[in-house]
Amino acid sequence: MDHYTKESFMLTQSVGFTLTQARNMITAEMDAALKDLDITSQQMGIVLSLNRGVAATAFELSKLLSIDTGLMTRMLDKLETKGLLERSRSVYDRRVVNLTLTEKGEALAARIPEIAPQVLNARLKKFTKAEFAELRRLLHKFIGE
């Protein structure tokens, strides 16, 4: 079933446009909330992914967070400069660079759950539990999960 036609398509009425607006709103609100931690929402994704063991290399992070490798390298450089992560060559494959959070990075990761849920909950405050569950279900359906 086609939901759009060339006659009915309007950019500002498209699902892609609305998803981009929603993403931009959440990103701006999360960035503002994380300002005191001196990280951005994208950097938060890196820190939490490393903290939770979801990814351990720049390549894995790039895939997981949909960030191109060039930008990922620059963000990792910033996090390393801030003393939040360390890079080390794999003993099994010298081409692989493993990433680990420093003690400072682990402490920062522990503070994020005090902040991020507040930002998301504020944006979702008009949703019932059922609507929230449906939104999640529909988004997962949309991305093919």
UniProtKB/TrEMBL annotation:
Does Transcription appear among the keywords?
Answer: yes
Which keywords describe this protein according to UniProt?
Answer: DNA-binding, Transcription, Transcription regulation
On whether DNA-binding is a keyword of this UniProt record, the answer is yes
- Tell me one GO molecular function of this protein: DNA binding
Q: Which Pfam families match?
A: MarR (PF01047)
Q: Which domain of life is it from?
A: Bacteria
Which organism encodes this protein? Answer: Paraburkholderia elongata
Q: Per its record, how is this protein called by name?
A: MarR family transcriptional regulator
Give the matching SMART domains: HTH_MARR (SM00347)
The residue ranges of the HTH marR-type domain are: 12-144
